[in-house]
Amino acid sequence: MGGKHLKVTPWALWTILSFFLYGVLHGQDVQAPTLRECCQYGMDRFLEGHDCTILPLISISISHTCRIAQEQCCAAAAGDQHCDKGMEMAKEQEACEWPFFSGGTWETKISKMCCDCCLLGLMIASQASSCELQGLSLERQCTHTAKSCCGINLADELKQTEKPVANFTTMPPEGSNGCRDSNCSLLCVGNGTCACPDGYQLQNDGVSCVDSNECLTDNHNCVSGQVCINTEGSFRCQRETSCGTGYELRNDNDCHDIDECALGSHNCGPDFVCNNTAGSFRCYPKESCPIGYIQDAVGNCNDFNECVAYASPCLPGETCNNTEGSYTCRRNKIPCGRGYHLIEDGTRCEDVDECRTGIVCGVHGCVNLVGTYRCECRNGFFFNSISKLCEDINECRHYPAQLCAHKCENTEGSYKCSCTIGFKLTPDGRSCEDINECEANPCSQECANVYGSYQCYCRRGYQLSDIDGIACEDIDECALPTGGHVCSYRCSNAPGSFYCTCPPTGYTLAHNGRTCQDIDECSTGIHTCSVSESCFNIQGGFRCLFFACPQNFRQAAQGSGGDALINVRCIKSCHPHDISCNIKPVHTITHTSLSLPTFRDFHEPEDIVVLQTVTAANSAVPGATDVFFDIQYTDDQLSFDVEKRAHHGMIIGVVRQVKPIIGPRDLVIEVAMNYIKSRAVSHRNIVMIHVFISELWF
């Protein structure tokens, strides 16, 4: 039922396009495709696996309506295929879950809907004898799918329950005429046997005939794209889709073209003539265009390009040039290559003498050649065969380190040598010699020429400036990190030197000009001590000392005024009958004096006094004498201690300063020397150490 399918291949599409162009160029018309062809082409594109949203043109003259037919028929074919998959899923698996379907969202949605609606139809068929969906407001496609599945299932059930009763014979009474006396509803085949014609089936009573629904029993011959409709005693096949614009469905169930021109349903204007086509119509202007022009779809006359439309409108050796409404033929010229030109009669090419036609080489010489020329370049230039020019030779690049001793600078046609800083060019223009910069006195004090430069230096007590490296600046020796040790007391800077000074009293500057020496007032006799006092020299001054022995002691000896230490020894001297005096352990009291500086860097104890004994150290003799030292009096900070040692086999006591003391200060240290024998103090000697600490470190 219906027309033949039109499958448009790429080669067929190119053929249609080629004939259309040929027809346009020769003023002929092109037959537009019918809507049926447009629809069939869209369905074929889907069946070939193409995307329905991207459809190529099947004709240049395709209308917008044809494009709609292509897209909608392609989409309908796609929808039918996905719907059929959903119906098959419902019949086979009786389940319509999303994971069972493949494809995109649109395809899955259609398959799921058809599967659900088919399940609904199958359920109605199993519960009722009719496929009427009473009381259900379903979508049109869902209703059609449900009825289709319901009808198929109901037909299968009828086939299973029907029994072969087509020929049921009811024998009339004996002696009667069988068919004349029979009560068959439609046919009697003799002997009272009832039968039914095609399209009917005999009931169980063997008399009545009822219509056979070929659509339910699947006894119809409707093809794909048609719907079976049961009729009384027969059936008919009706198209599922309409014929589309430009066609009408007639009683023969086929689509026939509508002649819009005969019916007057076209929209051609009064200046156009209507020409009917399959599924459409075309409007042609009543007036034709003159020769050399071609008429477009709206009736305008446009120039016809004869040079493109015809293969050879001109004679051989001529070139076609299109004009408005016509064309002209121009004779071809002989092409001459570079360096040649056409002679006046235009028959041949001859060489061009470039050296005469212009200044092609500039200031350089020119030599004409056949079809070209060359320049004879001056020294310092070379001829570039590509640009046909004399270009400068960069001697500095071609001969590096060969032309100039130091730097080479290229010039037009030559080069120039130069020297780096500190050198000058020799008369040969290539070599460089050193410049004696010291002749210009660039330095503030002393200058020494070196190769390619010079060096400034300064006299003692000055240093070269870090800013310009030329000026000499005074060195402040007193501010140097070691400036505190340059002078023993005070350092004063001077231009290029320095000088040291000492305290105003008690010191004098030594011969080295840096050290301050103490003045011994006691030996020089410039002290103020009385006759009864002893003068003791200390750092930066002196002391007048007088030591008297206590009661029951007498003075044994006294050091002279010039001695470094003033020693006064008091020996115990008791009356023979003074028992309390004799039992006291102290035998001697010794006064000694010591002058100390203020230790500038005090990090560890300093030994200041050594107390010697005549007692052997580490004696293993039973009952031997041992000596223990003890400080009985010192300053409040406990800045001193005494340590027992052995020296040359004898016991000695070493008094140490264990804490820093800032002078000036006068201190007294009382040290007891306890002699132990048989675990008892046999006697004790007292040493009084008078310490005078200066405020200075020297």
Automatic annotation (TrEMBL):
<dbReference type="InterPro" id="IPR000020">
    <property type="entry name" value="Anaphylatoxin/fibulin"/>
</dbReference>
<keyword id="KW-0325">Glycoprotein</keyword>
<dbReference type="GO" id="GO:0030855">
    <property type="term" value="P:epithelial cell differentiation"/>
</dbReference>
<keyword id="KW-0106">Calcium</keyword>
<dbReference type="InterPro" id="IPR009030">
    <property type="entry name" value="Growth_fac_rcpt_cys_sf"/>
</dbReference>
<dbReference type="InterPro" id="IPR001881">
    <property type="entry name" value="EGF-like_Ca-bd_dom"/>
</dbReference>
<keyword id="KW-0732">Signal</keyword>
<dbReference type="InterPro" id="IPR000742">
    <property type="entry name" value="EGF"/>
</dbReference>
<dbReference type="GO" id="GO:0030198">
    <property type="term" value="P:extracellular matrix organization"/>
</dbReference>
<feature type="domain" description="EGF-like">
    <location>
        <begin position="392"/>
        <end position="433"/>
    </location>
</feature>
<dbReference type="InterPro" id="IPR050751">
    <property type="entry name" value="ECM_structural_protein"/>
</dbReference>
<dbReference type="InterPro" id="IPR000152">
    <property type="entry name" value="EGF-type_Asp/Asn_hydroxyl_site"/>
</dbReference>
<dbReference type="Pfam" id="PF22914">
    <property type="entry name" value="Fibulin_C"/>
</dbReference>
<dbReference type="Pfam" id="PF01821">
    <property type="entry name" value="ANATO"/>
</dbReference>
<dbReference type="GO" id="GO:0005576">
    <property type="term" value="C:extracellular region"/>
</dbReference>
<protein>
    <recommendedName>
        <fullName>Fibulin-1</fullName>
    </recommendedName>
</protein>
<dbReference type="InterPro" id="IPR055088">
    <property type="entry name" value="Fibulin_C"/>
</dbReference>
<comment type="subunit">
    <text>Homomultimerizes and interacts with various extracellular matrix components.</text>
</comment>
<feature type="domain" description="Anaphylatoxin-like">
    <location>
        <begin position="117"/>
        <end position="150"/>
    </location>
</feature>
<feature type="domain" description="EGF-like">
    <location>
        <begin position="474"/>
        <end position="517"/>
    </location>
</feature>
<comment type="function">
    <text>Incorporated into fibronectin-containing matrix fibers. May play a role in cell adhesion and migration along protein fibers within the extracellular matrix (ECM). Could be important for certain developmental processes and contribute to the supramolecular organization of ECM architecture, in particular to those of basement membranes.</text>
</comment>
<dbReference type="InterPro" id="IPR017048">
    <property type="entry name" value="Fibulin-1"/>
</dbReference>
<keyword id="KW-1015">Disulfide bond</keyword>
<feature type="domain" description="EGF-like">
    <location>
        <begin position="434"/>
        <end position="468"/>
    </location>
</feature>
<keyword id="KW-0964">Secreted</keyword>
<keyword id="KW-0245">EGF-like domain</keyword>
<comment type="similarity">
    <text>Belongs to the fibulin family.</text>
</comment>
<dbReference type="Pfam" id="PF07645">
    <property type="entry name" value="EGF_CA"/>
</dbReference>
<dbReference type="InterPro" id="IPR018097">
    <property type="entry name" value="EGF_Ca-bd_CS"/>
</dbReference>
<dbReference type="GO" id="GO:0071944">
    <property type="term" value="C:cell periphery"/>
</dbReference>
<keyword id="KW-0677">Repeat</keyword>
<dbReference type="GO" id="GO:0016504">
    <property type="term" value="F:peptidase activator activity"/>
</dbReference>
<keyword id="KW-0272">Extracellular matrix</keyword>
<dbReference type="Pfam" id="PF12662">
    <property type="entry name" value="cEGF"/>
</dbReference>
<dbReference type="InterPro" id="IPR049883">
    <property type="entry name" value="NOTCH1_EGF-like"/>
</dbReference>
<feature type="signal peptide">
    <location>
        <begin position="1"/>
        <end position="27"/>
    </location>
</feature>
<dbReference type="InterPro" id="IPR026823">
    <property type="entry name" value="cEGF"/>
</dbReference>
<dbReference type="GO" id="GO:0005509">
    <property type="term" value="F:calcium ion binding"/>
</dbReference>
